[in-house]
Amino acid sequence: MNLTYHYDIQLPSHMDPDKKYPTIFTLHGKGSNEKNMFGLVEPISDEFIIVGIRGNLTLGAGFQYYELKSLGNPIREMFDQAIDQLQSFIHYATEKYPIDSGKRYLLGFSQGAILSMSLALAMGDQLKGIVALNGYVPDFVKTEYPLKSVKDVSVFISHGEFDSVFPIRIGHETVAYFEGKTPYLTFKTYQSDHGVSEENQRDFVNWLIKDADMLSSKERMNI
């Protein structure tokens, strides 16, 4: 396979060769890179495989997954291509590494959050859950994409109350869009700008642990 994306993978330090692991795919913000995302999930890197996906387009010293016409207005063709390529990459990584296909999570910030939510709507229950930090769902995704059900997808959305890039009303509009689509929806706001506070990190790390454990408990009950 001709890979579109450079990526960084962190495997649990004491892996069981006969086990498949829950996995978090991280998607960074515009102008950042995959290394900057690892610190957010490092506290649970012994429980999850962490796959940091670098945007394939350069932007200054960093990277992005697609370009914009204007703030909040992705170039549609580039966005669609990113959605297709990221789905292909997720399937590629699942085949290559000991990834449990029933326990795949996306965690994205800003541009990465936009993609994480859009991918959830495009992939449905191929994902177990997403963490979307300070993002939104583009209108064309809501109205023109062939959307899949997310009723079984766990969704954690957070937003900074003082976000100077995407105002807090966008966070409320985003969670209103997902309400009714999944019963597994968590929404939190933080007294922060366009970033991730320590409290925010602590909350979504605990959420990921709990969500993965809940799935494991259900599976054990069905054995």
Task: Please tell me about this protein's structure.
The protein is of the alpha/beta class. The protein has one domain: Alpha/Beta hydrolase fold, catalytic domain (Rossmann fold), CATH 3.40.50.1820. The chain has helices at residues 34-41, 76-96, 111-123, 139-144, 168-178, 198-222; strands spanning 7-10, 21-27, 49-53, 57-59, 62-64, 68-70, 73-74, 99-109, 129-133, 154-160, 185-190. α2 (76-96) packs across α3 (111-123). The radius of gyration is 16 Å and the shape is globular.
Write the layout of secondary structure elements.
Layout: E1 7-10, E2 21-27, H1 34-41, E3 49-53, E4 57-59, E5 62-64, E6 68-70, E7 73-74, H2 76-96, E8 99-109, H3 111-123, E9 129-133, H4 139-144, E10 154-160, H5 168-178, E11 185-190, H6 198-222
Parallel strand pairs: 2-3, 2-8, 8-9, 9-10, 10-11
Antiparallel strand pairs: 1-3, 4-5, 6-7
Helix pairs in contact: 2-3
Characterize this entry briefly.
The protein contains six helices and eleven strands.
CA radius of gyration is 16 Å
The outline comes out as globular
> Which regions contain 5 or more consecutive residues with pLDDT less than 50?
217-223
Mean pLDDT: 94
CATH architecture: 3-Layer(aba) Sandwich
CATH class bucket? Alpha Beta
Strand composition percent: 25-35%
Biggest sheet, open or closed, and with what strands and sense?
Answer: 7 strands, mixed
Output the helix-strand order. Answer: EEHEEEEEHEHEHEHEH
**CATH topology term:** Rossmann fold
The CATH homologous superfamily is called Alpha/Beta hydrolase fold, catalytic domain
Secondary-structure-based class equals: alpha/beta
What is the count of structural domains? 1
From the N-terminal CA to the C-terminal CA, the straight-line distance is 36 Å
Amount of helix: 25-40%
Number of helices: 6
DSSP, total strands: 11
User: Strand order, biggest sheet?
Assistant: 1-3-2-8-9-10-11
